[in-house]
Amino acid sequence: xxxxxxxxDTFVIWAKYMHSLGHNEQEKLILSLDPVSVPHGGNxxxxxxWDTISTQGIxxxxxxxxxxxxxxxxxPTLHGGGNFATAYSRIVVxxxx
Length: 97
Known about the structure:
Structural class: alpha/beta
Number of strands: 4
Number of helices: 3
Strand order of the largest sheet: 1-3
Distance between the termini: 38 Å
């Protein structure tokens, strides 16, 4: 099948689905990311990953319907400077309504 994964609490992207996502939550999140925050697409053997993301990208993750996202490399770069772990924790966890 060339369709993306069904409804899931975890966002993960596979290369073979990167450009054939269709209208779903995965596509919605990808389209909401600024260019620097789009994850690498991965390949046939491993899912995509983030090595760089902006605070705008983290906010897009927070606003998405996903509870989890994968995969981030160890110590990803926060575009524009600063500490990724601190920014992610502040935006995703501490800013809960």
